[in-house]
Amino acid sequence: MTETSTRSTGRRGTTAAEGGERARSAVDRWFAYYPAIALAALLPVGAVTPLFPVEVGVATFALGTLVVGMAHGAVDHLVPLRAATDISLRRSIAVVSVAYAVLGGAVVAAFFLAPAAAFVGFITLTWLHWGQGDVAALALAGVDHLPTSAERWLSLVVRGGLPMGVPLLAHPGEYRLVAEWIVGLFVVDASAAAAAVDPLFVPETRLAVGAFMVAATALSVGLGYRRVRAGASRRGWIRDAGEIAALWAWFLLAAPVFAIGVYFALWHALRHVGRLVLVDERASAALGGGDLLGALSRFARDAAPLTLGGFLVVGAVGLSVPAGVAAPGDLLAVSLVAIAALTLPHVVVTAWLDRKQGVWRPGSAG
Predict the structure, then answer these.
(1) Which of 200, 244, 250, 289 has an alpha carbon within 20 to 30 A of 85's alpha carbon?
(2) CA 75 to chain centre
(3) Do 240 and 145 contact (CB within 8 A), yes or no?
């Protein structure tokens, strides 16, 4: 009787493990690998976008934010519950709600008090977070050419810096326009807004950022290749290097607002959604069984209330800024300030999940 029970439990355990592996493979395929191929395929489109009015980029950003961008962080209140065994639903919601209220409020206050400095802070925070998301995706994919925390941090610097730093090098005019729109929400004098962002766009700053990105990229790819020579998987390294090359090309060629709008929805947000599917047992089981739509439906249901809440934050920021909202550029600027307010607590929740899953302690992930 005991022997039969043990064999049965073993079979169930094996089945559960196999289902989990199928779910991880499906997440990597549908939420990271295929979208990366899609972005590469869009390179010819991106190359002509600098010829389009900036309003095309604004519309693209708005659509991407509406479809998936805002939703990707809207399940944060359930992350502690699902990623830990000792946290209740009430505690999960309470802790995350307080973090969003306090940290998000601090970000909005910073824009009112020092908008240019807050803009730089937002760029830096987004650099960190988007790199954070890509490193987690690489860990999920099982690459083994980033075996140390230092190499993963270098990868973070490169991956996050591509969308934030490369457009500054390649398309400073539109980048500056967005900065002036954001600062201009809080500084009614247009000339004062322009003067506030001047130091970010002088040639010395742009060249320094460009040189840093080239050097960091070469170092990261080179160290990865050295790991391959020492026995790490060539396939994982080729994928990493290929994604980096695609992102370099995308942000060098495409107009910044359009490029960020597509990247936010197609790349960063989707990768995070896939990660959240895996920490939801029911969604992960559905995906492991081949039910992609079922897993997405469950995520969409969970994310719907706070996705709406995110758009209410956009509306609240729009009503509160001194300069008002009168043009598409103002709407983009308001959206970015609201996203900045939501990003800081989202980074904190994601960092907690990173720690729980051992992303920065290679070999310890559960």
Answers:
(1) 289
(2) 14
(3) yes
Cα angle: 181, vertex 187, 192; to 5 degrees: 90
- Angstrom distance (rounded) from CA 338 to CA 61: 14
Question: Is 72 annotated as a binding-site member?
Answer: yes
Structure tokens of 268? 């960063």
Nearest to 341 by CA among 146, 73, 4: 73
pLDDT value of position 216? 98
Q: For the whole model, what pTM was predicted?
A: 0.93
Contact predicate 238/245, CB 8 Å: no
CA angle (228, 232, 237) in 5-degree steps: 60
The answer to whether the CB of 236 falls within 8 A of the CB of 33 is: no
Burial label, 112 (beta-carbon count in 10 A; 0-12, 13-18, 19+): middle
Give first-to-last CA distance, the chain, whole Å: 32
Asked if residues 226 and 241 have their Cβ atoms less than 8 Å apart, the reply is no
Q: Is 77 annotated as a binding residue?
A: no
Please state the three-class secondary structure of the chain as a single string: CHHHHHHHHHHHHHHHHHHHHHHHHHHHHHHHHHHHHHHHHCHHHHHHHHHCCHHHHHHHHHHHHHHHHCHHHCCHHHHHHHHCCCCCHHHHHHHHHHHHHHHHHHHHHHHHHCHHHHHHHHHHHHHHHHHHHHHHHHHHHCCCCCCCHHHHHHHHHHHHHHHHHHHHHHCHHHHHHHHHHHHHCCCCCHHHHHHHHHHHHCHHHHHHHHHHHHHHHHHHHHHHHHHHHCCCCHHHHHHHHHHHHHHHHHHHHCCHHHHHHHHHHHHHHHHHHHHHHHHCHHHHHHHHCCCHHHHHHHHHHHHHHHHHHHHHHHHHHHHHCCCCCCCHHHHHHHHHHHHHHHHHHHHHHHHHHHHHHCCCCCCCCC
Per residue in 92-120, pLDDT (tens digit) is: 999 999 999 999 999 999 999 999 999 99
| 255, 52 contact by CB (below 8 A) | yes
- Return the sign of the alpha-carbon dihedral for residues 344, 348, 353, 355: positive
Instruction: Show the tokens assigned to 141.
Output: 């994919």
Contact present, 276 and 79 (Cβ < 8 Å) = yes
Q: Is the pLDDT of residue 6 over 60?
A: no
129 among annotated binding-site residues: yes
